[in-house]
Request: fold
Amino acid sequence: MSHCIVQIKFNPTFAPLFLRELMCYVDLKNKMNTTSYKTISANNATVQKEWLLVDAENMVLGRMASKVAVLLRGKHKPYFTPHVDCGDNVIIINADKVLLTGQKWDQKEYIRYTGYPSGQRSLTATEVMKKHPTRIVEHAIKGMLPKNRLGRELFRNLAVYAGPDHPHGAQKPRLIDLNTIK
Reply:
């Protein structure tokens, strides 16, 4: 059985409308360079991580936490991919000098549960700051990360210290001003 390819030649001005549209589509597809339209997805080999240092002194907690969450997630980078750890490692110093607005020092409660019956415990922000000065900053940032395996992996890229000293000098962290990030 032989196959035969039939080429039909016709004048495009007299062709039916659907054939004219088909011809335009074929011409466009032949002319288009499809390699420039491919979506590039980041992976662990292509991501470039760096170490950033944030000074939390006299910064409002929520505003600082949302910008640090963007840095941890990697949304500030042009090759951001939602399912990959594209973010940077962030070091926060002076976490004990963070600010809360309004009456939040007395009214904001941190609630936890021990796992036993009637084991719900709550502490105000002032009480948490006296016991664990870094926990308020960590809690605020963790709440702004995804609630899945990726979020837990991103949270490991955060280091919070109460004072101005940190043990990450060998990584040569770059001091970053959070006011420049949108």
About this structure: The CA atoms of residues 59 and 140 lie 13 Å apart. The chain has a mean pLDDT of 87. The chain has one domain: 51-180.
